Amino acid sequence: MDVRVNFYSWFKDMTHCSETVVSLPANATVRDLKTAVFEQFPKLSAVQNSMLIAVGVDYQGGDYTLKNGDEVSLFPPVQGG
Questions:
Q1: Which domains does the chain have, with CATH numbers?
Q2: N or C, which end of the chain has less CB nearby within 10 Å?
Q3: What's the pLDDT at 79?
């Protein structure tokens, strides 16, 4: 299955792109997607503990099962003052 991954904020700088498509086996989880993304973009693995992940418009944890065509957003924590 194919999942579209969007990068936001300085994750775009780290990956040198705003989006990519990742091919995964059926029933892959967000955790599986992160592994695939870190293989493609090793610099992102350094910030994995502070990475926010949304599938569609909802935040999801590592055990969430993805579906073909899902759109996943990866971004750093929101900061403000």
A1: 2-75 (3.10.20.30)
A2: C
A3: 61
